[in-house]
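Quick one, C-alpha cells below. Sequence please?
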C-alpha cells in the first residue's frame, strides 16, 4: 500500500523524499488524490517537483513549501504559465491547483509533456555543430516570441525548456517575468536577457551565436547590424563572467550540487552525486586509504596517490607540511588544495577538459590551515611527455595530438588563463581528449598585459619539453604560431 503523507513530512524529509507516496489535497472545495512516483527536483523546505498520476492522467506536480513565500511563488508559476499560453507560446497546461493539509501548502498539477527531454540533455546528446546550431536557433526563436509578447525568463537556463520532435516548450512559469506583458520588450532588456541565455554555453560555441541571433532578429523584425551583434556579444561575455563568479562562490558551501561540512578542526566540501557512506569514511581520514593506494608522486611538498572509493578510481593530492616554519607560513594562506578545487571548477565552467573535481579536505585549527587534500577523478591515460618520449612514439600520429594542444591553448587564451607550470607531464591524453592537471599555480588574469606575459612563459616552458625531439618541436611550433594573444 502506497503511504499517504502530508506537507509536514515533505518539509522534514529534506532531500530524502521517499517515493512512491500519495497526498490528499483540497481542490475546488473537493478532496482529490495525487500519487507521486518519481522526484525530479527538490529544494529542501522550499520546492519539490515530482512525476505522478492524478485522475488517471500523467502529471508533473509542483509543491511550494517555503513557509514565507509559498503562495507567492505558486501564484507566479500560475501567472507565468497562463501568460505564455495566452501569448501562443508552447507551455504545459495547468490541470489543477490545490492545498495540502494541515497547513494549506500549495500544489500545482501540470500537463506532462512526453516523450520529451530538457534542452540541456538534447544539447549534450547532439553530436555535431549543425545539430547544436539547430537547437540554439529554435530556442532563440522561442525567446524572441516571449520578448515580442513582453515576457522574459529571469533565469532562462536550458532545463527550463523541453524539447520534443516538433516543439520547444517553456516549462518554468515562476521564472517568467510578466512586468512588460502586452508590450514588446525593448532592445536593451532583450539583448540582456538573450545574452544571459547564450552565456550558459561554453565559449567554444560562441561561433553559433551570430546564426541564432539572426533567427531571433528575424522573428522580432529587427535589422541585424554590427552594432546590435556587438552589444549582444558584450552582454554574453559580461553575463558569463557574472555566472562564473557566482558559481565559484557556491563551490565552497552547502547547496544542491555540493555537501559542505565545517568544524573547528576541519573543512570539507564534496560533489553531492558522489557523496555516499564510503566517501564519508574516506574523507574523514584520507591518509588511511592513501597508505594502501598506488603512489603516483612522492615529494616534500605534495604526495599524489591513486585510491579506489566505492569501486571508482580517484586521485588524491595531499599538500604536505614540511616543517614548523612551513606550517606557520601556510596557515594564513589559502591552501593549494583550495586553489586547485577552485581552478578545476573554473575550467569545468568554461568547458576546458580537466579531471572532474570530487572533494576538498583541509585540516584546520580554528582559522589556521594545515595539511590539505584535493581529490579528483582518475583519468586513464598517458601524459604527453611519456607519450612522445616512449619507445612507441613512431607509431603515434603527432599532428592530431598537437591539434588538441592548439585547441586547448586557444581556450585558455580566450579566457585569459595561465597554467603556471606547463610541463608536458601535466597534460593527460586519454583517447581523443586532452586533460589539463596540476592546477594550484593556475591564474585567471584581469590584465591582458599580465596575461600575455604569463601565458608566454607557459608556452616557453611547454616548448622546452621537446628540446630533444626536434621533429615534434617543429610541429608544436607551427601550431602555436596560430595563437593570437
Amino acid at each position: 500500500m502506497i503511504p499517504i503523507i502530508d506537507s509536514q513530512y515533505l518539509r522534514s524529509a529534506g532531500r530524502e523524499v521517499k517515493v512512491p507516496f500519495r497526498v490528499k489535497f483540497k481542490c475546488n472545495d473537493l478532496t482529490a488524490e495525487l500519487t507521486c512516483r518519481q522526484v525530479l527536483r527538490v529544494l529542501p523546505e522550499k520546492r519539490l517537483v515530482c512525476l505522478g498520476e492524478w485522475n488517471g492522467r500523467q502529471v508533473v506536480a509542483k509543491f511550494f513549501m517555503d513557509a514565507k513565500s509559498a503562495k507567492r511563488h505558486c501564484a507566479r508559476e500560475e501567472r507565468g504559465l497562463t501568460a505564455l499560453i495566452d501569448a501562443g507560446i508552447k507551455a504545459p497546461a495547468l490541470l489543477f491547483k490545490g492545498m495540502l493539509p494541515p497547513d494549506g501548502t500549495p500544489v500545482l498539477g501540470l500537463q506532462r509533456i512526453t516523450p520529451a527531454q530538457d534542452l540541456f540533455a538534447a544539447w549534450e546528446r547532439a553530436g555535431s555543430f549543425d545539430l547544436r546550431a539547430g537547437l540554439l536557433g529554435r530556442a532563440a526563436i522561442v525567446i524572441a516570441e516571449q520578448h515580442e509578447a513582453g515576457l522574459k525568463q529571469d533565469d532562462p537556463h536550458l532545463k527550463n525548456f523541453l524539447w520534443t520532435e516538433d516543439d520547444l516548450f517553456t516549462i518554468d512559469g515562476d521564472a517568467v517575468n510578466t512586468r512588460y506583458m502586452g508590450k514588446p520588450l525593448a532592445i536593451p532588456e532583450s539583448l540582456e536577457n538573450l545574452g544571459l541565455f547564450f552565456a550558459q554555453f561554453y565559449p567554444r560555441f560562441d561561433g553559433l551565436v551570430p546564426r541564432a541571433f539572426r533567427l531571433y532578429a528575424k522573428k522580432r523584425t529587427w535589422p541585424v547590424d554590427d552594432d546590435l551583434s556587438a552589444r549582444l556579444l558584450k552582454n554574453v561575455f559580461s553575463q558569463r563572467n557574472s555566472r562564473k563568479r557566482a558559481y565559484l562562490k557556491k563551490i565552497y558551501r552547502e547547496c544542491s550540487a555540493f555537501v559542505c561540512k565545517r568544524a573547528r578542526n576541519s573543512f570539507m566540501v564534496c560533489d553531492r552525486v558522489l557523496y555516499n557512506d564510503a566517501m564519508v569514511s574516506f574523507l574523514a581520514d584520507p591518509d588511511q586509504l592513501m597508505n594502501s593506494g598506488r603512489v603516483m608522486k612522492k615529494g616534500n611538498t605534495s604526495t599524489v596517490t591513486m585510491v579506489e572509493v566505492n569501486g571508482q578510481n580517484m586521485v588524491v593530492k595531499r599538500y604536505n607540511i614540511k616543517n614548523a616554519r612551513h606550517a606557520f607560513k601556510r596557515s594564513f594562506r589559502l591552501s593549494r588544495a583550495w586553489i586547485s578545487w577552485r581552478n578545476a571548477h573554473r575550467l569545468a565552467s568554461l568547458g576546458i577538459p580537466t579531471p572532474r573535481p570530487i572533494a576538498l579536505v583541509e585540516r584546520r585549527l580554528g582559522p589556521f590551515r594545515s595539511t590539505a587534500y584535493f581529490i579528483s577523478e582518475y583519468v586513464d591515460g598517458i601524459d604527453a611527455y611519456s607519450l612522445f618520449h616512449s619507445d612507441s612514439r613512431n607509431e603515434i600520429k603527432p599532428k592530431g595530438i598537437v591539434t588538441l594542444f592548439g585547441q586547448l591553448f586557444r581556450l585558455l587564451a580566450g579566457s585569459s588563463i595561465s597554467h603556471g607550470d606547463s610541463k608536458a607531464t601535466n597534460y593527460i591524453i586519454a583517447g581523443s581528449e586532452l586533460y589539463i592537471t596540476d592546477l594550484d599555480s593556475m591564474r585567471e588574469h584581469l590584465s591582458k598585459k599580465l596575461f600575455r606575459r604569463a601565458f608566454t612563459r607557459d608556452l616557453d616552458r611547454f616548448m622546452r619539453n621537446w628540446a630533444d625531439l626536434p621533429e615534434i618541436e617543429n610541429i608544436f611550433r607551427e601550431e602555436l604560431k596560430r595563437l593570437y594573444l
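The two ends are 66 Å apart (CA to CA). The first strand starts at residue 21 and ends at 27.
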